[in-house]
Amino acid sequence: MEKSLPPIPAKRYFTIGEVGELCDVKPHVLRYWEQEFTQLRPVKRRGNRRYYQHHEVLMIRRISDLLYSQGFTISGARNQLQESAQAQRDLRKNTALNEVDAVGPRSDNDANPDMASDAADSPAHLISSSFPNAKFASPMQDALRNELLEIRELLAD
To answer: Containing domain of residue 43, as a range?
Structure first.
């Protein structure tokens, strides 16, 4: 696009007219794109008025660039958006797995040293021995798991 687009204001919702001006796209085209691109789902309120969020405005700019600047067809643009979304999901998945591997497995005794004496009889130990390869997405989730197991022990008494 030769014409520079205006910056997107810091607002939560944008009307279809505002989005049209921000993206240099007519409202009837935006309504059509809603049917063609499943990623576009503006909130509809009273009278079927559409309200777009910031991420949807960015998506519309991306669609506009694919169609008008890069020459994609609607089908091609749809495929391009799906491929980039899949690549982002794969990247997030790999990043999450790498973070879990970097933290490494933790023993239940690391979370609460007082439990070390009777750790062999604790539910936490039984779960750990039953699922030795279990990894949690974050240390916070691991700590929460340990805390819940401690609560279970208290309730069992």
So the answer is: 14-94
